[in-house]
Amino acid sequence: MPHDRLKLELKKTLHDLDEMAACKRTENVIRAVQPASKEYGPRFFLSAEGNKPFIRMNSNSYLGLSFQQDVLAAEEQAAGQFGTGPGAVRFISGTWSPHIELEQRLAAFHNREAAMIFSSAYATVMGTLPQLINDTTCVISDELNHNCIINAIRLAAPAEKLIYRHNDMAHLRACLEGAKNNCRRVIIVTDGIFSMRGDHASLKEVVDLAGEYDQHFEDNALVVVDDSHGVGAFGKTGRGTEEQQGGAQADLLIGTLGKAFGVNGGYVVTSSVVVDYLRETSPFYIYSNPITPSEAAAAMKAVDLVDSPTGRALLDQLRAMTRRFEAGISASGFETIPGEHPVVPLMVRDTATTSALVVHLHGNGVLATGLNYPVVPKGDEEIRFQISADHTEADIDMVLDVLKRFDT
User: Which of 125, 278, 291, 339 could lock 282 by a disulfide, CB 3.0 to 4.6 Å apart?
Assistant: First the structure.
């Protein structure tokens, strides 16, 4: 059946996105990888760019573990033993021993009773948050939270939804004060690392406020944190924003296996009762295939590596390269948002200039991502650089040199 009128409407929408420089459908296709040399980290080759090498400054693989030989060997061995796919959703026949072992390892890594893996971190948030929200729940959310949190709250339709100004604890307190006589349960939800800016939640203060107001809610005041950009890349031992904030623990912590751990999938760690409840009620878990057994085995090896002297060395390298790049940006007269996390934003604050800078970087062999409205608020347009432990000093200096040569 033809759908010509629908196509016309969709073309108009696509045209508007193109005019706003907000389109995301044009993707770089990586066709080959050149391994790291003594002086330089890996280089990437794109299908549309022949033999021109690129440095990747827009990857979430903060520790470079996706190319680590022990991780690759663990995945290959498990694929040979268990096959390439899980075969079904977990409650039918899709649970394999690597899934169970990985969940136990993640729970131990985060000092929690239990863990539960999902197909992605996005699916984890969508499959966790709505299951804890009912018609007597107030949800209080940081204004800069990720799209997955926003959509999870929309899906849940809580009794009350409040948005507090970014990291503004006085405003969060006012929200709690207003909700305490109206709802049985309150859930404060925040990113651990705010991925567009690289700054982190004031998690200790959030947890302290929840404890202070807990007595006013029959079903408790809960803290839910999505620390997908923090776990594995932040904190002295890679345990994320909780560790960086002195060990403040959320009631539910959501993480990803697809960023610093270099594999795929998402997970939540919390009490065993909550995990059992989610296994019975979460549609994103019950009706969706899990990650493959081989991915689970690779993720297990990645967690072990992070939780070892090798991981400490990688984290030290990551912090050193982050400091070098951030200092170089500032010394070159660019604006950034200082922080310890390897997301280093270069604040451009103009859509046209952001797009021009991305083109300049690409032309000089640097893969970087420009973020324009509506991905970020108007006036916050930026280049989001992401440092990795497999970057070298020579890599960082090369990118800084390219930036210095940009003619505004």
Answer: 278
